[in-house]
Specification:
The protein has 188 residues and is of the alpha+beta class. The chain is 17% helix and 39% strand. It contains three helices and 14 strands. It starts with 13 loop residues before the first helix and ends in a 5-residue tail after the last strand.
């Protein structure tokens, strides 16, 4: 079954994005509970590259397909799950990377739509918050995607968000999306 190419975020309005999100149907992985079958021999690197048996998966459509059956378990581990099998997958940081942002509005009426490396689009807001965690090498920004899965916000995208926060010069540096304020200062 071929997968559609991801949309070009720059050409979409927020109403277009909302429509696409409403139309998107993901497999109900949270309802599937087969026995654990083993290891998928797959790994998702910190930069979002998917590997199988040490080699990068070069087919974008294959990565997009696998990403739809990815689930985070209650113990924090990651699995690829179908109705009949569950396989472990190693995730170095976050399973997705937010590689592009579309910004509409300003101040507390701003909306931020992120395109992930898998082509998925996520709009930051109450259900998809932005968090910052401090690491030894500086802040690491994340976007909640679904079911405990997160996207690491790419450094270039984070700089766009930081510029918005600086332009608005609020008491606490941060950004708005979906009527929610997200501070850009991380927790230790």
């Amino acid at each position: 079954m071929p997968m559609d190419a991801p949309p070009d975020l720059a050409t979409l309005s927020l109403s277009d994005i909302a429509r696409l999100l409403q139309e998107k149907k993901l497999p109900p992985v949270e309802q599937w509970n087969p026995d654990h079958c083993g290891d998928s021999e797959m790994r998702i690197a910190r930069d979002g590259t998917w590997f199988h048996q040490g080699s990068p998966i070069g087919r974008e459509a294959m990565v997009r397909l696998f990403s739809t059956i990815l689930r985070r378990e209650s113990d924090g581990s990651f699995v690829l799950v179908t109705p009949v099998e569950k396989l472990s997958i190693t995730v170095e940081d976050a399973p997705f990377v937010a590689v592009e942002v579309k910004i509409e509005g300003e101040g507390n009426t701003t909306d931020l739509a992120f395109r992930l490396n898998t082509g998925d689009i996520v709009v930051a807001g109450r259900d998809n918050p932005i968090t910052i965690r401090q690491g030894a090498d500086g802040p690491h920004p994340y976007l909640a995607v679904r079911g405990g899965l997160e996207a690491l916000i790419a450094r270039s995208v984070y700089y766009e968000l930081a510029n918005i926060a600086l332009d608005e010069a609020g008491e606490t540096p941060g950004i708005w999306s979906g009527g929610v304020f997200f501070p850009l200062e991380g927790s230790a």
